[in-house]
Amino acid sequence: MHDEFRTLEATAESAGGAAPMPALRVAPSPHIADPSLTTARMMIDVLIGLAPVIAMSVWVFRWYAVLQIVIATLSCLAAEALATSMRRRALTLGDFSAAVTGVILGLSLPWSAPWYVGVIAGFIAIGLGKAVFGGLGYNVFNPAMVGRAFVMIAFPGALGAAAYQAQGVALHVVTEATPLTLAKQSAIATDWWPLFLGTVNGSLGETSALACLLGGLWLCLRRTASWEIPASIVGTVAVLAGIGQLVRPDSPMTLAHHLLGGALLFGAFFIATDPVTSPLTFRGKVVFGIGIGVLVWLIRTFSGYPEGVMFAVLVMNAVTPLLNRWVYPDPLGGPAPAPKS
Amino acid sequence: MASLDQPTALERFINGILPENPVYRQLLGMCPTLAVTNSMQAAMTMAGATAFVLISANTITSLIRNVLKPHLRILVFTLTIATFVTIADRFLAAYMYEMSKQLGPYVPLIIVNCVIVGRCEVCGSRQPVHVAFSDGVGQSIGFALALASIASVRELLGSGTWFGLPVLPASWPAWVIMLLPPGAFLTLGALMGVVNWYQARRAATAK
Amino acid sequence: MIRYLAQAWLVILLGLCFGAALAGMQMLVADRIAENKLNETLAQIPVLVPGAERGEPATVGERTVYRALQGDRIVGWVVPAGGLGFGDRIELLVGLDAQAATLTGLYVLEQKETPGLGNKIGDETWRDQFQGKRLGTPLTVVKRDPAPDSAEIRAITGATISSQAVCTIVNQALTDEFRAALAAAAQE
Asked: Which of C4, C7, C14 to mutate to test the interface with B (most CBs of B within 10 A)?
């Protein structure tokens, strides 16, 4: 934009010749900018919202959680620094977006993941998920989920259902499989209270529904996250799972499992709400959320994977540009009148 | 018949290897490039079969170029290519049965490899036999180099081996994704980026 | 007519030459290719059935199976079986003793399971579990060490579905009637 100014001024000067005309600075709207509405403020909000989730994961998984989050975050920061310096741009670590990607990525990993998983996932998340598209704001897919999907397919042994369970570790929760795997493969239903509190096995950030709700509500209240997305995701899964429970009351995949068991709340509040990769309008957000909800339920119920939040978000990310075009909002003052013929 | 501004045999040969590399510069032949590069053995067998078809078809086309009716040329190209592909396919099935099973439909699919029909059109049908032959060899080497570069990355990361020989330590965590189709796209994209960066830098220093 | 020939003579001539070349190629290698295909199965027979020296195709109950022969005596059977795995179809060869009562071996002809996890169904250490299993009770997959003398197969870690698929294919291929037909055919 500054370049445009300069051109304008230059033209004005050259046109004015000896008597220079006053430079007229015209910029497109919006003309009022709120200095507090910055990327960094939004990202710090997300980090504050993630605080209860981090606390809960550290309480449940102890040092394993700290290790994964630190590895993933440092890798994302390093990748961001590398990517921006390769493109000869100013360092963008200060907007905290890479840090948020790193923390969310770390929280989405299993406690047992080897160190290289977090490192590779971090570099893929920033490099392939964000930098190749042109940096923050241009990425099509949620970077953290790109990184996680990559390592999930690259190292199925380290991230599959079997990786969560282990014996002989000083952690009580990891002797059992994750609630969704238990329900799906062994037909064992976990009580809803541990699911809600988070004292069960799972990816680091997903276990505690309570912490996700606390952090998520903060984000929605601060309007950093749009409430429409989590509300429509959770609502859709609740309806589908409710119908499922009515049809098959003996199934261990109860409503509580669907809502509290997997990464649904974590994904709904912290992953799907990424403003870059989600639609802009109210209707778009609702359709986006319903799409994620339906996909999550379908994947959990009918596929070989126990959990489907990651793939659901990535699929709907891909649909987002289409949604944005489809639910194009009316301009101020009503739709543009059809040209008179 | 060759006019003076047509490239010579040597120029054709060199062009095929890097300046007009079929994969990295012309973006042709993507199907085998993506489909069979998860191991060096498969990639090099494919490169060999493609080289046989390309050189033979190019030479034959050049031999008959003076009696070729322009509006029938694509028909004749396809006929020629299909014949040599079938010969290559039968040969592999007879003498390299395991590899032929592994490559599956991708050997018959050499017929639709645009590198070959492209060379017949650009060079074979216009230039004398020795130029067409060296053009075929150059393009084949370029194609083989491209497949080798992608297959090396994918096999090293995906299995920790090269030509089936263990290279990386046994504790190397195999990146399964590199052996699957996404790995092919990612590797091709990354290497294409490197090639473009190198070209841009060379162009910049040449100025 | 002459006009058409003037246009098409080259195509016709090339078609004839190439056709002749392909026919020659086919005559040269057809036997070898057929042999390769048969050998792939036959070469496994001495591995799959102990004591077998060679195999030959046979038809039992409308299915193609292979007799495993020692001299002229039938020492077992090799049964091709296939079904859906996690990724795509899995094609197996199952070795049986002459009475079709015990599994003597298992070989994976074709599979496209996940590399690193499901494709371990091709590993010898895993396949060896099937040796000596008594047939009659269906094979089941367990996630611990299988009980001795049982029809239990230990699942590959992280690839329960592929392991289950192999057991299901074997179970479905070797029905009681089919095994009875095999045993009867061995008596003849």
From this structure: C14
This prediction has a pTM of 0.81
Two tokens, residue A247: 């049809």
pLDDT tens digits along B91-114: 998 999 888 888 888 898 999 898
Task: Tell me what ipTM this predicted complex has.
Answer: 0.84
Q: What is the mean pLDDT of chain A?
A: 85
Q: Using N-to-C axis directions, what is the helix angle for C2-42 and B73-95, rounded to 10°?
A: 20
State the best of C120, C157, C163, C164 to mutate against chain A, taking most chain A CBs within 10 Å: C157
Question: What CATH number does residue A93 fall under?
Answer: 1.10.3430
The shortest CB-CB distance from B182 to any of A120, A153, A158 is to A153
Cα A181 to Cα A201, A202, C160, distances in angstroms: 10, 10, 12
- CB distance A182 to A174 below 8 Å: no
In B, minimum Cα distance to A121 occurs at B175
CA distances from C99 to A43, A105, B121, C68 (A): 71, 57, 64, 12
Taking the C-alpha atoms of residue C127 and residue A202, their distance in angstroms, rounded to an integer, is: 32
Report the candidate in C84, C82, C153, C79 with the shortest Cα–Cα distance to residue C113: C84
Rounded to a whole number of angstroms, the distance from the CA of A42 to the nearest CA of chain B is: 32
Please calculate the CA angle C151-C153-C155 and round it to the nearest 5 degrees.
155
Does C115 contact B180 at a Cβ distance shorter than 8 Å? Answer: yes
In a domain, A7, yes or no: no
> φ and ψ at C82, to 5 degrees?
-145, 160
Residue A210: inside a domain, yes or no?
Answer: yes
Asked if A125 and A74 count as a contact pair (C-beta separation under 8 A), the reply is no
pLDDT in tens, A280-296: 889 999 999 999 999 99
pLDDT in tens, C173-183: 888 888 888 88
- Residue numbers in chain A where pLDDT is lower than 50: 1-17
A164 in a domain, yes or no?
yes
Tell me how many domains chain A contains: 1
| Residue C169 scores a pLDDT above 80 | yes
Q: Which structural domain, as residue segments, surrounds residue A112?
A: 39-326
Q: How many residues does chain C have?
A: 188
